[in-house]
Amino acid sequence: QLLEAKASLSLAQTQHALQVQQAKAQINNMVPKKQFEQLQTTLTEEQCKTRQLQESLHQQTEQTCRQLVRTQEEHEHLLQAAAEQAEGLEHSLKSAEAVLTERAAQLRDAQAQLSRNKLLIEDLRGENRQFAMALQAAELKQKSMEEKNQLLEEQASALKQLIGKITPASL
Q1: What is the domain extent for residue 78?
Q2: Which PANTHER family does this UniProt record tie to the protein (predicted)?
């Protein structure tokens, strides 16, 4: 029994030595309490900072999304306004084209009338030249007639004088 007790004791001592050695290794691997508390405080602070950063990031994301939605709405309004303006300009362009087409037709008509008027003016000039020549011929004839008339009047006056002289002498 003593041998058994010695063996048990030796076994227990060996186990105890092993446990002490393991405990020492664990203690060596362990961090001191003060350092552990500092690490835990740092960890808590870092977790708090991480939460704040996540909240800030979340807020920035929401703000960016809202701004993107506003920008997209503004872009759509601008696009719609530009489309309406383009439609108005297209309408104005069509109206201007219609007015220009009408004016071009009026100008063609006016040009045709002008050409007809030029021909009429040329005809009238020709007729005017003929009338001027006829008038000149008539004036020359009138002058010639006036000269003949004056000559005849002079002859008639001379005859009257001659008759006036002859008549008292014959009586």
Answers
A1: 49-122
A2: NINEIN (PTHR18905), NINEIN-LIKE PROTEIN (PTHR18905:SF12)
Residues sharing a CB contact under 8 Å with residue 150, sequence separation 6 or more, in sequence order: none
Does residue 151 lie within any of the structural domains?
Answer: no
Tokens of 136: 């000149």
Round to whole Å and give the CA distance between 60 and 66.
10
Six-digit token string for 96 = 């201007």
Structural domain count of the chain:
1
Range scoring the smallest mean pLDDT among 22-26, 96-100, 104-108, 158-162: 22-26
pTM: 0.39
Residue 118 located in a structural domain:
yes
- Tens of pLDDT, residue by residue over 50-86, are 999 999 988 999 999 999 999 999 999 999 999 999 9
- Asked if 47 and 55 touch (Cβ cutoff 8 Å), the reply is no
CA distance 57 to 67: 15
